[in-house]
What does this fold into?
Amino acid sequence: MKASNTPRAYGWVARMFHWTVAVLILAAIAIGLYADNLPEGGEAQLQAIFAAYSVHKTVGMAALILVAARLLWTLAQPKPRPLHPERRLENFAAEVVHWALWIGMIVLPLSGWLLHSAAPGGFARILWPFGQRLPFVPEDLALSERFATFHEVGWWLLAGLIALHVVGALKHAIIDRDGAMSRMAGNPNRAPEPPAARPGILPHVLAAVAALAIWVGPAFIPATSPVAEETPLASAAPQAGPASGWAVEQGVLGIEVTQAGSTVAGQFGQWQADIAYDPASRAGRVTVDVDIASLTLGAVSEAAKGPDFLNAAAHPAATFEAEILPPPAAGQPHVARGRLTVAGQTVDAELPFELTIEGDVAQAKGRMRVDRRDFGIGAGYADESTVGFAVEIGFELSAKQQ
Ligand code: HEM
Ligand code: HEM
It folds into this structure.
């Protein structure tokens, strides 16, 4: 069999690319769905999820590299001529699907790599010796969620296109019995000689534009998961506390943990802060109530809220009650010193935070590090191989004086 394409059939290089990429993409879909549906829970389950996603990403990257090589090869090759040039609509439909498959084969794995690169930490590694992240892609949870939304919608689109493509191929094989299949599979000598007529350039251009239009849709679907930039506190529900001096208007309360060596960031959607603060003495007090069930934490939200960790069912709320102390020296942050209760355990905690007040609006931002073992969280995870001991708690808010 010839390496190059002929007007009648695809050569063995194009066939090798077609079938290897087809297998890799179908495998990536199957493994992605498998990983997405694995049960969350204990350490063994978490490790299984990491492993499955690592394989998924590696298979997807292999597909992307092969598609890039295939693209170069295809550009340098003649394309077998249409078998039935008179069936204009059918040829056009087939070409739209081919173009859309080409676009999908590139943008879908690319969106996976982008979401992996932008994820703060990323939780499952691509199994290769090269770098993990694309250069110039910032670690940004909101950005990662956007690519994830595209990836999650895009695979449905790609799967739909593959289904159409396969139905078309089967129609040729079963209904038309015209030997079209032997152009890509089977004996190329059995492929009939297509008529010499060729359509003009316009149908090709229109098909390419239609295929592009198909892929524009998923790119504009807003991210579905709650993320920092898109979850202003006003809607994410921290309500103003009772007459307390300052009412929270906007803000984010998040945590970061280290999982299998990478950082995973998440947020609480529901919390409320009761703040009293006197700008003259630069002192006050604060009480924060957090709804544990409102936590989203990467792919392991359910595990984090489950019995091994925060145990939202038994301990639905966490609280932080503290005195606000003035900055110990000029240029230093304020300190909220008090008691933090999580999962039913109370420990002393100190939260340094920056505060700026303009008129009756205050902006505050701070973070502290706690040790999960002090709260008996993840007691079954005695070392840090799966989940680190340190947990960063961070917040950023603006509040208005009442
Ligand atoms: C699994 C069942 C599949 C069958 C039976 C099949 C069959 C075929 C056939 C017969 C052709 C040649 C069409 C012609 O004569 O012009 C073709 C081309 C093509 N197939 Fe498939 N295919 C399958 C899966 C896939 C998958 C999973 C993808 C990608 C996601 C794919 C992407 C393409 C593309 C892009 C072309 C056009 C080739 C080019 O532009 O050079 N196919 N396929
Ligand atoms: C042809 C290539 C690929 C296909 C067809 C594909 C398909 C899928 C599917 C079906 C899922 C599960 C569905 C879901 O979560 O809603 C998924 C999830 C995921 N994929 Fe891919 N993928 C591909 C390549 C990649 C690559 C190259 C990476 C990273 C380097 C990647 C990273 C991810 C991640 C991180 C998730 C989980 C997303 C989340 O939970 O939000 N994928 N992919």
User: Anything to note?
Assistant: The longest helix spans residues 141-176. The chain has two domains: 12-219, 228-401. The two ends are 81 Å apart (CA to CA).
